[in-house]
Amino acid sequence: xxxLRRIKGFADLLPDDCRVYAHMEQTARExxxxxxxxxxxxxxxxxxxxxxxxxxxxxxxxxxEMYTFADRKGKSLTLRPEATAGVLRAFIEENxxxxxxxxxxxxxxxxxFRYERPQKxxxxxFHQINVEAVGQAAPQLDxxxxxxxxxxxxxxxxxxxTLEINSLGCPGCRxxxxxxxxxxxxxxxxxxxxxxxxxRKLTNPLRVLDCKAPGCRELxxxxxxxxxxxxxECRAHNDTVLSLLDRAGQDYMLNARLVRGxxxxxxxxxxVSSRDIGxxxxxxxxxxxxxxxxxxxxxxxxxxxxACGMERLALLLGAKQAKPVDFYLAVLDxxxxxxxxxxxxxxxRNGLCGETALEVKSVKSHLRRAxxxxxRYCLLLGEREIETGNVEIKNMLDTTQQTIPFENILAxxxxxxx
Length: 418
Ligand code: HAM
Prior knowledge:
By secondary structure, the chain is α+β, with helices and mostly antiparallel strands. It is built from 16 helices and 16 strands.
């Protein structure tokens, strides 16, 4: 029978990978909790309209990358390409602002889906660690979120990263910038823009700045920059964010062309990248999205958030070794199989970790297994031990060996002993 294979762009996360992913999630949980974040888990499948309305009709994500299909009743559903829209939908639907907190800070981890061309660090199913902070427009929150992100990355041991920051202005000052971009892209550059950007330059010229096509990238290098168009309020907001980062000792670079691939951003946007993981350099990105909650049918609340790409962080982190276990129970006589299983159960009930052999093997192959598990102790149950009610204990670290009565095993193996 033909073997079934996984779908292109979808990966199996094997035990070695899962250890790294669990470590990232655990670290995120620890760091984010220090900032008052709470966990939320939202569905992977949402109504297509949610993403079209929030991410933006003109974005690559909505135009080309969503896994959209009709359910059995013909409703259009989409596998989430990002977490922000779903988290905000839940925030509104579940009235999470009812407590009147300064900002409700929510984090979530899980798979996202984008129909992109797979390559190193770019998958069709990938995982994000995502944070949203809703309810506060103050620039202090922007600085706090950026500092929380960098604390998380530092806690993971990742230091050789670049943080880039920009301000995209607000609905008050951005139109003048969009006009300037439209003027810039007019007529003379027609033949160098890609097909999508020929349309986008009229409908949403900021998207041209985010285009990956070589011709568009070249053109964009000479385009006007948003920093020349910011209104006094956006400028003051940005100045406060940058000054707070300076005072907190946080390095960053200004990047006036950082527009990000989603339409909902206003004011602060940021991205963290690495040069050590190939062409897909962005390991995290985010920004402020005042107006988005309202446009999804909720109260007029500001917000800011970011997401880290776990596949890309995993490339930086490398493999994480399996933890050693406390015991391995080696059975050398068939009569030992049942007592071994019951003894292992008692040891685990007392908090110890380990495995028991489910078949009789030679001492050599049992010791090989104990070594592979990195067991601290290998307990041997052979004919002689079974007849005398003893167990042979081999300390795998110093290779010493002793024979002890069955009922004393727990005392010898309890964690205080280690
Ligand atoms: P994003 O920049 O589209 O932002 O994605 C955030 C991160 O997810 C990227 O920096 C990258 O590390 C990772 N990522 C994105 N696409 C892929 C892919 N195909 N394969 C592997 N990793 C990928 C957002 O998604 C926003 N929702 C972030 C946000 C939250 N903004 C405000 N709140």
